[in-house]
Each structure stands twice: as structure tokens, then as C-alpha cells.
Amino acid sequence: EINFILGQSHFIKTVEDLHEVLAQAVPGIKFGLAFCESSGAALVRVSGNDPAMIELAQLYIYEGSTRLELAPPMLDAVTVKQEPASAARAQYLLGEYYYRKGNLAAAAQSFLVAATLNAADADRTASSLFRAAEMMNLAGRAADVRELAARLEKFFPGSQWTAEARKLLEGGPR
Fold this sequence. Notes:
The chain is mainly alpha-helical. It has eight helices and two strands, in the order αββααααααα. The protein has helices at residues 14-25, 52-62, 71-81, 84-100, 104-117, 122-138, 142-155, 160-170, and strands at 32-36, 44-48. A two-stranded antiparallel ribbon has the order 1-2. The longest helix is centred in the middle third of the chain and has 17 residues, at 84-100.
């Protein structure tokens, strides 16, 4: 069962305002909402707290959807308003988004942030550090690659991501 609410507004912060009202009025509510601006670029603003949004954004990113630009706002909403596991996953997906857009610096930064959001998930942390190292490698920042590989060696010595980082340092195939 779902409840569908349709509204109309002329205010730019409508999505944020509705998010706040829903979250405060119904503790524990799971929701997603979207608002399409009627002027200019007709941007779609989204918000919510449902991890299904992460799945949708992931589809947009990994399948090269024409709706790729909808993914970052969804993921940003989850990163800010979710528990650590979902926030780390959303931040990781933001790294993938920026990588696919060719922005290696933003991708590396997103992966590094993802590595800090959920210390309880060692694999997500290690994979995030490795993906950051990959971005640095693609950007020609060898010193940063070595530093991230050293971090992986120190904190995740038996991880598959540490083994991948060693290959990256050696210049071999993954």
C-alpha cells in the first residue's frame, strides 16, 4: 500500500520543505518525492529516506541511463539523511557517477568520503580506498596511489582490495 500526494508550488525549496514536514510528522516514514521545476532547465529535485532510491540511482549510473543526472541528488539525500551503511553506499555510488562523467578528482574525493562513513563495513571501506587509488592512478597522481595502497596494506592486509592495489602499483592488469 502507498499513499500518493500531489502538490504544486512556486518555491524552489519545496522538496526540502516537504521532506522535513514528512519526516517530522510521521516518525519512521519511508518515502521518496520529486519536484520538477517549471522554468529554466526544468530541473528535477528529489529527496527521501528510502534505500530503494539508492538502487534506482545505481541503475541510472551503471546502466548509462539517459536519466544519469537524476542520480546525484538522490544519492546526496541518502548520504545526508541515512544510517552509516546506506550513506557509505550512496557516497560510493557518487564516486562511480563522477568517474563515468570523467571527473576523476570528484570521484576520488567521493570514494575517500565513502571510506570514512561506515567503519563497521571493512570491505566497503577497503573497496572505497581502492577505487580512490584507481582514480588517482588514472589522474597520474602516483604519490597518492602509493599512499592509498600503503593505507590498504596497513589496515586491510588480507583484503582482495589490497591485492588489487598491489597490482595497480605494479602497473599490471586487475
